[in-house]
Amino acid sequence: MTTAIRHQVGTVLMEASTGTDLASVRYLRHQMTAVLISDGLADMVDAATLLAAELLTNAATHAHAPDGFDPCICLRVCRESQHLLVEVFDPDPLLPRPRQSDADEEHGRGLAIVEALAEDWGERSLAKGKVIWFVLSLAACRASACEKGT
Ligand SMILES: Nc1ncnc2c1ncn2[C@@H]1O[C@H](COP(=O)(O)OP(=O)(O)OP(=O)(O)O)[C@@H](O)[C@H]1O
Ligand SMILES: [Mg+2]
């Protein structure tokens, strides 16, 4: 799994692989929260875990492992001096399709939330699957946390 994700940036704070059930998504989200807090990045927890949960839930619900591949999700969190890079790997080569959801539709907004809140995001095809990633700015998260008084 580690070698499947390329273009590593900064210091790896966390890298974990799980199955594709929603309990695993919750586990990864909790682990990520703990890691960010212990690394002094509590101001990033809300935004980072919200967006990671969207990508992890997508990997758990939409990705289908091709024959011969184990269904799995890998989450990697890397810190650069002023940014956090979060990558979610799944073994399905099919790339996400951002949707325009109607006001009364319950779903179809996950990637729009990532687009709205992340400083940048994207996708990268790999030999065995893909990575969807986003970047958050530490300064922006600190400013937002100050505004909220947290
Ligand atoms: N990891 C993935 N692998 C394959 N297809 C994906 C993946 N992530 C998203 N998609 C596709 O992109 C579409 C848009 O994803 P998005 O997260 O915006 O909406 P959603 O998951 O359908 O709904 P919501 O996130 O609001 O519950 C999905 O409906 C799915 O078809
Ligand atoms: Mg979604």
Protein described:
The structure is a single chain. By secondary structure, this protein is α+β, with helices and mostly antiparallel strands. The protein has one domain: Histidine kinase-like ATPase, C-terminal domain (Heat Shock Protein 90, 2-Layer Sandwich). The protein has 4 helices and 5 strands, in the order βααββαββα. It has a 5-stranded antiparallel sheet. A hairpin with a 3-residue loop joins strand 2 (73-79) and strand 3. Helix 1 runs antiparallel to helix 2 (45-62) and helix 2 runs antiparallel to helix 3 (110-117). The longest helix is centred in the middle third of the chain and has 18 residues, at 45-62. It binds adenosine-5'-triphosphate and magnesium ion. The site of magnesium ion (MG) has 4 residues, from helix 2.
**Beta content:** 25-35%
- Into which percent range does the helicity of residues fall? 25-40%
What overall geometry do the principal axes of the alpha carbons give? globular
What is the chain-wise order of helices and strands?
EHHEEHEEH
CATH topology: Heat Shock Protein 90
Bound molecules: adenosine-5'-triphosphate, magnesium ion
Through-space gap between termini: 36 Å
The overall average pLDDT, rounded, is: 90
The CATH homologous superfamily corresponds to: Histidine kinase-like ATPase, C-terminal domain
* Computed Rg: 15 Å
Number of helical elements = 4
Number of domains: 1
